[in-house]
Structure formats: C-alpha cells, structure tokens
Design a protein that fits this description.
The chain is 38% helix and 32% strand. It contains 4 helices and 9 strands; from the N terminus they run βββββαββαβαβα. The strands form 2 sheets. A 7-stranded mixed sheet has the order 1-2-3-4-6-8-9, sandwiched between helices. β2 and β3 form a beta hairpin.
Length: 136
C-alpha cells in the first residue's frame, strides 16, 4: 500500500485513488476481480480525511466499478458512516455497475440520503456531477 498525499494519489495493488484538488474530485479505478475490504476503505477514507479536512466545500467521488466483484460488510459500514457525515457536500457517481450492485447502491441512497447515482458509462456520470456543480 502506498500513500502519497503530496501528489494527491493513494494506491494499493487493486485500487488507484487520484484526487484533483482543483475541482475536488476523487476518481476510483479498480483491478479486475477486486472485492472491497477494510484495506480499501482505510486507504480511501484516510486519504479523503486528509484531502477534504474540515472544509464544507462540495467534493465528489467518481467510481468506475469495472472489475469490482463486491464489498464486504466492514467496507460498506465504514464508507457509509464517513459518507453520511459528508452527505450535504458529497456527490457520488458510480458507473459500470452490475445489476445487483446497482440495486445495493440504490438501497444505500434511499436509506442514507446520500447524493449517489449509478450510471451505465463515465460520460453520463460526469454529466450528472457537472449538473451538481462539480467540474468533472
């Protein structure tokens, strides 16, 4: 696992997490066959805490779910807790989800009040973020 806050990127063997501080967007990309665990949530959430800090400015997550097989309960719990703390300033756009993952994401949205949406492709995900005021 590598952390490089000065370069605004963190990574592990199955996930790349670059942060663009100019537009306050994280772009997540995964290796094929990835099952998200507490290792992934620790990396992502630690970086977001550093990058976002106590700012109330909006920020976004743009996630390409290609290659993601699933997420364990700990990953879902930790990320949901963090996301809920920032629900008024966070926009999450996920694309290339399978049908089950799309359903689970919708359940998260309804149950948490998060501003999260699933899309079939990156262009539509970015367009939605732009509608929300994020320069994606």
């Amino acid at each position: 696992m590598t952390t490089a806050a000065k370069t605004h990127t963190v990574a592990c063997d199955s996930m790349q997490v670059p942060w663009d501080p100019q537009v306050r967007i994280v772009t997540l990309r995964y290796c094929p066959g990835t099952t998200l665990t507490n290792v992934h949530s620790s990396l992502l959430l630690g970086a977001l805490r550093d990058w976002v800090g106590s700012s109330v400015e909006p920020f976004a997550l743009l996630a390409d779910a290609t290659g993601v097989r699933g997420a364990d309960a700990e990953y879902r719990s930790l990320t949901a807790r963090f996301f809920k703390k920032h629900k008024d300033q966070l926009f999450i756009a996920v694309f290339n989800l399978g049908s089950l993952a799309r359903l689970l994401l919708e359940m998260l949205r309804v149950g948490s009040g998060l501003q999260v949406r699933a899309f079939g492709d990156e262009a539509h995900a970015r367009a939605w973020l732009r509608e929300k005021g994020v320069a994606a």
